[in-house]
Write a structure and sequence with these properties.
This protein is 40% helix and 22% strand. The protein has 17 helices and 22 strands. The longest helix is centred in the first third of the chain and has 27 residues.
């Protein structure tokens, strides 16, 4: 591993106590560039080592993570203030590494067929198609799932034969030293996977040093990264914010739909990109649905004082708490009714948003139009499919959505008109559970190829063609008559 700089460092706040209790090393632009050139040199052997060897290294990495499992869970729990999700994050990471080691090996086994010379449209020229991995892929990740989102694009990139440099969020970096210990147990992987810590300036230096960038974060930062990538002519896969909508048709099972929507809007205290942030409910079932939802949401408890008891963790980032506060104040001032919750409480120095359901919300409210990233759900009524679709499509975001209906054809008809990359039908946020289906972000929610499904691997290759003449003179050569 590259030696982490001892100076300067950034003081990190604990989301449960509000206290600054951790120091994170900050990599300078020169240090990032030095890590990048080392990774580039070492990538050549990695790419040549073959898919089976790369998969074996990844599987050893999964075992090494299992060996530090409890320390890693503790570190992420400190970073995020939540326990159950930290367990899922570590176990999900191990599962994802194993899945990619197997799936990518199978996909790459099929690939040599493309290397066989084949005839082209010109009888005397044969062609060979080669997939060349990018030498160095950069990953920049956010704070809401610090481990999972730092590595999610690393597995396919490493399996493709790329080297990878990761810059995690400066809000949640405690997991990094523990992860690096696991990584050090697999020496060949340390040659091609390194972590640089720091804030935005380190992120900018990383973009300047790589051949392809995978960015997960806000629309505002994503736009800056896209501009920098465009100026450098490197590709950018951007996974950005969302404002996912639920469309609940009159034929939906009210009690089951309320349970599903409660989970998808409140889990992780709403701090997921695919968190439900708006619900549109057919007028004829609006009242019974809202009553069922409020009953579910009001029963949720903060994981305080015991991190292992309850369902709702703290707001991780102070900057996000300020956005949530602004959205709540704006909504209430414009006439929204708070049916349950509605406040950010201070418990033990941390900031805790109450699980909240709002009605009488309108499109001009920030809480309906902008990403809130909180356990807050505004619920609004619609009349007829056309209006539901118009409302669901009314924000700048296009990440994912869900439709509930007793009529599956109606649900699919609505899904086909939603401007989003994935639609869960008769459940919500299924992209958190199923990773096999390719999906791309629409509108401001992102740019680039699918991070899910087999297509994900293709993002890390450029196509190179060998065009081989059999020695016959070209019909295009100059004639000398
Ligand atoms: P953010 O955009 O503030 O920061 C993300 C990362 O970018 C951090 O590591 C940060 O240090 C880095 N960064 C900041 N300025 C930079 C610059 N100029 N150049 C390069 N890097 C820079 O996002 P956040 O607040 O950490 O995360 C929350 C956001 O992430 C939400 O909008 C959420 O929806 C989004 N998100 C999206 C997905 C998805 O898959 N679509 C998944 C999770 C989170």
């Amino acid at each position: 591993m590259a030696d982490a700089p001892s100076e300067p460092s950034l003081a990190i706040r604990n989301p449960r106590t509000g206290l600054v209790d951790h120091d994170m090393p900050v990599f300078s632009a020169d240090q990032v560039a030095a890590v990048a050139s080392q990774l580039r040199r070492q990538q050549v052997a990695w790419a040549a080592s073959g898919a089976a060897a790369r998969a074996a290294s990844l599987l050893r990495f999964a075992d090494a993570i299992v060996a530090v499992r409890s320390e890693l869970i503790d570190a992420i729990a400190q970073d995020t203030g939540r326990y159950a999700e930290s367990v899922m994050e570590v176990d999900g990471t191990v599962g994802a590494i194993k899945r990619w080691a197997v799936d990518a090996t199978a996909l790459l086994r099929a690939a040599p067929a493309s290397h066989v010379a084949r005839a082209s449209s010109m009888p005397h020229i044969s062609v060979e198609q080669h997939a060349r991995p990018f030498a160095l892929v950069g990953i920049i990740s956010p704070w809401n799932f610090p481990l999972l989102l730092s590595l999610i694009d690393a597995y396919p990139a490493l399996m493709a034969g790329c080297a990878v440099m990761v810059k995690p969020s400066e809000v949640t970096p405690r997991f990094v030293p523990v992860l690096e210990r696991a990584l050090n147990a697999v020496p060949e992987l340390t040659q091609v996977l390194q972590i640089v810590t720091g804030a935005g300036a380190t992120g900018g230096a990383l973009v300047a040093s790589v051949d392809l960038i995978c960015f997960t974060g806000s629309v505002a930062t994503g736009r800056k990264v896209a501009v920098q990538a465009a100026q450098a002519f490197i590709g950018a896969h951007l996974e950005l914010g969302g404002k996912d909508a639920a469309v609940v048709c009159a034929s939906a099972d009210i009690a089951r739909t309320a349970r599903s929507i409660c989970w998808a809007s409140m889990v992780n205290a709403g701090q997921s990109c695919m968190s439900l942030e708006r619900a549109y409910v057919e007028q004829s079932i609006f009242e019974p649905f809202v009553a069922a939802l409020v009953k579910e949401v009001a029963a949720l408890k903060h994981c305080w004082p015991d991190i292992r008891v309850g369902q709702i963790g703290p707001v991780i980032s102070v900057a996000q708490a300020q956005i949530i506060e602004r959205h709540l104040v704006d909504a209430v001032a414009k006439g929204a009714k708070v049916l349950t919750g509605g406040q950010i409480k201070v418990l033990g120095g941390g900031l805790w948003c109450e699980p909240t359901v709002l009605t009488h919300t309108t499109a001009d409210m920030a809480i309906v139009a902008e990403e809130t990233f909180a356990p807050i759900l505004p619920v609004m009524a619609f009349e007829g499919e056309a209006q539901a679709i118009e409302l669901a499509n009314s924000t700048e975001f296009g990440l994912s959505a869900c439709v509930f209906s007793g009529d599956i054809e109606q649900a699919k008809r609505i899904a086909s008109q939603l401007e989003v990359g994935a639609v869960s039908i008769n459940d919500a946020s299924l992209t958190a559970l199923v990773h096999d289906a390719a999906k791309q972000s629409f509108k401001s929610s992102g740019l680039g190829g699918s991070r899910m499904g087999a297509a994900s691997l293709q993002r890390f290759y450029r196509q190179q063609a060998y065009l081989v003449s059999n020695g016959t003179d070209s019909p295009w050569w100059f004639r000398r008559s």
